[in-house]
Design goal:
By secondary structure, this protein is α/β, with parallel strands linked by helices. The strands form two sheets. An eight-stranded parallel barrel has the order 1-2-3-4-5-8-9-10, surrounded by nine helices. Strands 6-7 form a two-stranded antiparallel ribbon.
Length: 317
């Protein structure tokens, strides 16, 4: 199935437009219907393009058949809401050529091949192979150079490897990928910074942006981990401590340095959990999932709207 049959767009024009006009396209991960509803309704209201992201774990959790149906439903739902901005379906952190190929064949409009844990030449070879296959079907490809600390599905990285600015031009030229995820100090999960006063490596980003002045850059692990959501979760029985995200002011600064796609996942998980915990604690007689899942959906929607306006700047298109 080709992604156009699902009403999807690839990310090539989306990211080029973002690069040209100085905003970032949100890359929002989803795992279920409520997250998808929240993302689409938030982006419809803010008139923002969006990249719907599915990790390998989320793809396994939902199943290929239901995932395809959800993607088709998302574009139909967007049209019902009057949304005209483009929507992409993106594989996040694909580890193998086979996984990327399967996603392309089932209707994904964009894939990420993540060979960042391999030596440079192996990363180039695998990324190029995916790009060559994807481009036959007009599917966009994202790759990663450098590695982020943290946990992404089953992949665990115990340290950060910053992107080497001297490698980026050669990597892009030899792979033919459409966008590049860089490592400048963000990380996966809710425990991103040891010290909330820490700063991203803007010196590295500045060098990368200078070397790739007209090329879309991507920032992974960019949740801000709002303290109000942590407080809400803990108020209703949670035990989250020491979690620090990336300050939104730093994300906005990165956006102005060729970062034209910003990935957010942990913040939505926190909002989802806060909504569920609040309802189940305050209304202990509730057992209808629609009640507490609606609360979770509403909190996520407000989070996404705020991100689009105050972090991505994608509501301005």
């Amino acid at each position: 199935m080709h992604y156009t049959e699902l009403g999807l767009s690839n990310t090539h024009k989306m990211l080029r437009d973002a690069l040209r006009h100085g905003y970032a396209v949100p890359g929002y991960n989803f795992n279920n219907l409520e997250q998808l509803q929240a993302i689409i309704s938030a982006c419809a209201e803010t008139k923002s393009p969006v990249i719907l992201q599915v990790s390998a774990g989320a793809r396994k959790y939902m199943g290929a058949t239901l995932l395809t149906a959800l993607a088709r439903g998302a574009t139909d739902y967007a049209r019902e809401l009057g949304m005209t901005a483009p929507i992409a379906l993106h594989l996040d952190h694909g580890a193998t050529f086979e996984v990327c190929r399967d996603c392309i064949d089932m209707g994904f409009s964009s894939v990420m091949i993540d060979a960042s844990d391999k030596p440079f030449d192996e990363n180039v070879t695998l990324s190029r192979r995916v790009a060559e296959y994807a481009h036959k079907y007009d599917v966009s490809v994202e790759a990663e150079l450098g590695a982020l600390y943290g946990i992404e599905d089953d992949k665990i990285s115990t340290e950060t490897h910053y992107t080497n600015p001297t490698d980026v031009v050669r990597f892009v030229r030899e792979t033919g990928v459409d966008s590049l995820a860089v490592s400048i100090g963000t990380s996966h999960g809710a425990y991103k910074l040891k010290n909330p006063a820490d700063t991203l490596r803007f010196d590295i980003l500045e060098q990368i942006a200078a070397a790739l002045s007209d090329f879309p850059l991507v920032l992974h692990g960019a949740s801000s981990v709002p303290q109000n959501l942590i407080d809400e979760i803990n108020k209703y029985g949670g035990k989250i401590s020491g979690a620090h995200g990336i300050p939104e002011s730093q994300l906005v600064r990165a956006r102005k340095m060729n970062i034209c796609k910003i990935n957010v996942d942990s913040d939505a998980r926190l909002a989802f959990t806060a909504g569920v915990r609040k309802i189940l604690t305050e209304q202990s007689d509730v057992f209808d999932p629609r009640t507490y899942l609606s609360a979770a959906r509403d909190l996520m929607k407000e989070l996404y709207k705020d991100k689009n306006i105050n972090v991505m700047g994608s509501n301005k298109i």
